[in-house]
Complex 1 LYR protein domain-containing protein (Urochloa decumbens), 85 residues
Amino acid sequence: MSNAGLCAYREVLRLVRRLPAETRPYYAKYARENFVNYRDLSADDDLAALLRRAYAHSSWVLSKYSIDAESEKAAARLKDLGAGQ
């Protein structure tokens, strides 16, 4: 996995910590499974597409649990990682 992929994984795990305690294990496991499944991805545009998908999914989960705007700013870092690819 590229450096951007590892940075994205860290950001997702930081966002998971902002979720309600009872939901954290599910979303942490979901994130890990997805990042592990795509760790051997080689094409940069494929990685950028996955990072955009991680941002979209993270934003959806944050809004589902009505997490504050500060978390949305943190999720925007995922968007920046995807755009930088």
